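Feature request, filed as a ticket because there's no other form

It would be nice if the structure record came with a short human-readable summary line next to the C-alpha cells. Right now we just get the raw output. Example of a typical job, pasted below so the devs can see what we mean:
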Amino acid sequence: MSTNATNRWQDSPGGRAYAENDCGVVVVGSGPVGMLLSSELRLAGVRTVVLEREAEPYPHARAWGLQPRTQDLLDRRGLLEGIEEEEPGQMPGATFAGRFLDYSSLDTEHPYYLHAPQSLVERVLEEGALALGAEIRRGHEVVGIAQGPDGVTAEVSGPGGAYRVRGRYLVGCDGGRSTVRKLAGVGFPGTAPTLGGLLADVVLPDPEDWRLGGTKSETGMLMVLGRKTFFRVVVLEWGRPHPDRRAPVTMEEFRAAVVRVLGRDLAMTEPRWLSRFGDAARRAESYRVGRVLLAGDAAHVHSPFGGQGLNLGLQDAFNLGWKLAAEVGGWAPKGLLDTYHSERAPVADSVLENTRAQVALMDPGERLAPVRALFGGLADLPQVNDRLAEEISGVGVRYPMPNAGVGGEPHPLAGRFARDLGLKTDRGDSRLCALLRPGRGVLLVLAGRDDLRALGRGWLDRVDLVTTRSTGSAPAEALLIRPDGYVAWAAGEDPDRDRAGLCHALAAWFGSAAPVDPLKDTQGTDGA
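Raw output as currently delivered:
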C-alpha cells in the first residue's frame, strides 16, 4: 500500500469508505489509557471505536498523581494544560517504601509529582479524544473476539442488543481483570498477594484524632492523605490478603481493620467511596497476540506503592499509538509493532520488581527491621535517591535503538527522551515540544547539515523536517525523534557514519523512503 493512500480503515477526505461497524482500531476500555490511545490513533487519522462496559464514567479516583515523565509526554500533545488548570498541586518528589525521594535533580521539565486524580486525567483525555473524532460507546460490553487474516471481530452486548464491530486491530485497555486478555488466551503469570489493603474517602471531623502521613504498627500501617474536600484513609495489613477482591467493602469492615492496625477506632463520617486492593504482581506473557494487543492494567498489575500504575499505562499508550497507526496506515516497517512488547514489557518488569521490593521493605515484621534500617541509611545518599527517583518517575526509561549506531556505538542520546529545546526557524521561534503536537516523527537539523536534510526528504509524508538552530546548547547537530518523544538517532562526529545511521534509523522506524520530486522541496520542511 502506498504511504500516501487512504484506506477503508481511515478517514478519507472524500468521505468515509467503511461499513458502519468497521474501523481501524477497536479500543476496549474507556479509562485514561484507552482515552489516550484513542487520541494518538485519531491524530494519525485512524478511525477508532471505544467500547466501554460501564454506562457512565467512573466517578472515583483509583490513582492520584502524574509522574514527571508522564507530564513530559502529555505536554508533547498539549494535554497537560487541561490537567494543570484544575490546580491539583505539586509535590517535590514521591515516596519509595515510605521514604521521600527528591525529584529536583531529574532530567525532566517537570521535576515534581503532580497531584491529579485519575478521574480528572480521564476526563481531560476523553475530551481530547472526542475533539479529535474518537467514537465512545458506553454500556457496550465485549463478550467475544475472533481474529482473521486482516482484522479482528468483537462480539458486543450493547443497550440495543448484540452486534459485531470489526477493526484491523483490537486493544484491551480494560483493567487488571481484562476480558480481552482472557478471551485472547494470554497468560498472566506473577506473584500472589501478600497483604490486604482497604481505602476509604471520608470526612475526618476531629483534627486531634488523626495525623497526616503514615502510622506503623506491629500488624500494618494506616495512612491519611489530605484531599480538597475529604481525606483518603488507607489501611494495610501484611499477611491478610483479601480472599475476594471483588467483594464490596463495608464501613464496618473498614473500621475493624483500622482498629486492628491503629489499636483504636478513628472518627470517620460521610464515606463516599470504599475499595480494596492487594499487592499481586503480574505481567502478561505477551502484549500482542496477532491483531490483539494489551495496554495498561490489562498488561500488568502491581501494588500502588510509588504511584506508578496509572503512569505506566499512559506511557504504554504513547509507545503503542503511533506504531499501531503506522500499521493501519500501511507504512510501518517490518517488526515495528513487535517493538511495543520488546520496549514496554521490560519497563513493566522493573516496576513489578520495585513495587515488590517496597512491599518487603514496608513489612512491619521484626525480622526485616535490619533490612529497613540498612535501606534507610542508603536512601539518604544522593546517588541512591537519584537512582530510585529515576526508577519510579519513569525518567530512567531508555529504549534500545539498534539502528542508531551503524558502524559503531549508538550516540549517548539514542533511546533517551528528547528534552524540550528553544528553536529558531525561518517561520519564527518555536519549541521542540510544540513540534511533536501533531504526533509525527521529527528530523531536527540543528547546524546546517544540508546532507542530512536532503536525506530526510524521502520521508516527508511521515516525518517533519525542521531546519533550525537551538536557542540554547544544542545536544547534537541533528536528531531524529519518534512521535513518542524518544530519540531514534543523533548525529555524531563522522559525516559518513551520520548519513548511514540516519538512513538506517529512518527506514527502521518509518519504513521505506517515498520517491522525491526534485522540483519540490517544501512539504513538511522547515516547520515550526
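Something like this underneath would help us a lot:
The chain has a mean pLDDT of 91.
The radius of gyration is 24 Å.
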